[in-house]
């Protein structure tokens, strides 16, 4: 059925204007004033903002870690994402050394099939580079549409790859048209500091942060950026948490290196002191990189405003406090790393960013949707309100005041990392390809309605200058 959205303020990464949007067969077919609405369902967006659905480039749903599995799977996780205004996610497909990549990809298809209520794609973890992996990668890109590879520089003896693997991945990605993503922390030094802390009997959650100092994130970020410049390749640094990493990204971009940076809402509004909460409550805030000293927040906000950082992911990786996080009650290294973030990503950036004047409304759309679509081969079908784009649309009330709480969120996890935070703004209705998933704050979607997205190669559907970093 045709739909027409009226009376709202349309916001894109470039423009803000009053207008109407006509949707037919899941696609935006007209944008303008006084459109012919004959036979169309009228959606009244009076008093609301209308912007493209959020794209979360960084999620871990139904992911095994530390002897347990994340609480939110592709059903509960995508329902929560939709309530938060996200209409597309890109989840991380983990691989096992010595096994074919296609086996891991098939596992992730099985995890997501008939569960997702919004559209989704996969990144692929690279833990080793050899002839077998190199022979599979063209198939991964051309047949599966997976055009981004992740390399971990941390989690020694679990996920961590060596420098040769990272560099060869960068070289290979340049030739194949893929974007390389890195978790940038120096895993070798972290391993040493962790063993040293445990030997001294330092087992509380705060030592998770103290054994992963910001210098090690900055060092790894700089190393990855230098490798990228040497390879002439492209790099996306995930979950940037501190000034040291921002500095390295800015310097690399000033040299013309094709380097991009993502931060997450938790680093913008929470700080290291949360890990010191009594009664083991600090375990709720154990993720990697860890929360930093509060002054880093201003650096991250300024980096988003200036374009030194370009995107906001959630790094959704939820574990219950009771029954999962408490596995590390006697040893902080056994606390499953990760937090429940997916639902509050857009609202926190709007409330703390736009409403407080830290970023513009158009930057908000670019950071949460448009730039992500361009970097990860989804633009212009995703990340845009334009004729021909998928009708992935959020109708957002910018004035409602509310309090974030586990009592009202839609994630399956038993706590909320932002519990008690007062924010302004909330999605009212969310459409994916023209169909409601959330309507008037009620879930009306269907598990399995989300489509798997095969993504284009890096920069392949953009003008040559569109994705190149600017000198700072």
Short descriptors:
472 residues; alpha/beta; 9-stranded mixed β-sheet; 8-stranded parallel β-sheet; 12 helices; 19 strands; 23% strand; globular
Helical run tally: 12
Structural class: alpha/beta
Cα end-to-end separation: 47 Å
Strand % is 15-25%
Per DSSP E runs of 2 or more residues, the count of β-strands stands at: 19
Helix content: 25-40%
Major β-sheet profile: 9 strands, mixed
Radius of gyration: 21 Å
Low-confidence residue ranges: none
Which word captures the global form?
A: globular
Mean pLDDT score, rounded? 96
Helices, strands, pairings?
Blueprint: E1 3-11, E2 16-24, E3 27-32, E4 41-44, E5 49-52, E6 54-59, E7 64-65, E8 68-69, H1 76-83, E9 86-93, H2 101-112, E10 119-125, H3 131-142, E11 148-152, H4 163-176, E12 179-183, H5 187-199, H6 206-210, H7 214-231, E13 234-237, H8 243-254, E14 258-263, H9 265-269, H10 296-306, E15 311-312, H11 345-354, H12 361-375, E16 393-403, E17 422-432, E18 435-439, E19 442-443
Parallel strand pairs: 1-4, 1-5, 6-9, 9-10, 10-11, 11-12, 12-13, 13-14, 14-15
Antiparallel strand pairs: 1-2, 2-3, 5-16, 7-8, 16-17, 17-18, 18-19
Helix pairs in contact: 4-7, 7-8
């Amino acid at each position: 059925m045709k739909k027409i959205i009226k009376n709202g303020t349309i916001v894109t990464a470039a423009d803000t204007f009053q207008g109407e949007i006509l949707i037919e067969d899941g696609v935006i077919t007209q944008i303008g004033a006084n459109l012919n609405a004959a036979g169309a369902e009228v959606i009244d967006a009076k008093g609301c903002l209308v912007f493209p659905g959020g794209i979360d480039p960084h999620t871990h749903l139904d992911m095994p870690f530390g002897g347990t599995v994340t609480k939110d799977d592709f059903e509960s996780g995508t329902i929560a994402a939709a309530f938060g205004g996200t209409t597309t996610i890109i989840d991380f497909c983990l691989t096992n050394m010595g096994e074919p990549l296609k086996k891991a990809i098939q596992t992730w298809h099985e995890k997501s099939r008939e569960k997702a209520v919004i559209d989704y794609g996969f990144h692929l973890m690279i833990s080793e580079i050899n002839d077998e992996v190199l022979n599979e990668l063209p198939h991964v890109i051309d047949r599966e549409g997976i055009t981004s590879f992740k390399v971990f520089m941390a989690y020694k003896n679990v996920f961590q790859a060596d420098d040769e693997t990272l560099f060869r991945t960068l070289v290979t990605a340049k030739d194949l048209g893929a974007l390389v993503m890195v978790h940038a922390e120096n895993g070798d030094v972290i391993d040493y500091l962790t063993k040293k802390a445990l030997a001294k009997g330092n087992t509380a959650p705060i030592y998770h942060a103290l054994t992963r100092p910001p210098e090690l994130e900055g060092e790894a970020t700089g190393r990855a950026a230098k490798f990228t410049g040497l390879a002439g390749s492209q790099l996306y640094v995930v979950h940037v948490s501190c000034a040291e990493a921002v500095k390295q990204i800015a310097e690399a971009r000033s040299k013309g290196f094709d380097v991009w940076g993502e931060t997450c809402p938790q680093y913008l509004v929470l700080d290291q002191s949360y890990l010191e909460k009594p009664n083991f409550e600090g375990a709720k805030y154990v993720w990697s990189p860890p929360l930093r000293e509060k002054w880093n927040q201003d650096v991250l906000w300024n980096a988003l405003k200036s374009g030194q950082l370009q995107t906001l992911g959630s790094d959704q990786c939820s574990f219950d406090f009771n029954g999962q996080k408490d596995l590390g009650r006697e040893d902080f290294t056994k606390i499953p790393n990760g937090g429940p973030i997916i639902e509050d990503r857009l609202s926190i950036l709007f409330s703390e960013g736009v409403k407080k004047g830290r970023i513009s409304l158009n930057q908000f759309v670019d950071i949460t949707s448009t730039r992500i679509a361009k970097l990860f081969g989804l633009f212009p079908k995703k990340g845009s309100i334009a004729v021909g784009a998928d009708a992935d649309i959020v109708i957002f009330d910018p004035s409602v005041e509310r309090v974030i709480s586990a009592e009202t969120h839609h994630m399956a996890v038993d706590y909320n990392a932002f519990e008690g935070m007062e924010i302004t703004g909330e999605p009212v209705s969310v459409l994916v390809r023209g169909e409601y998933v959330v309507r008037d704050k009620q879930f009306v979607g269907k598990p399995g309605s989300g489509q798997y997205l095969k993504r284009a190669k890096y920069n392949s559907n953009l003008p040559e200058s569109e994705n190149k970093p600017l000198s700072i």
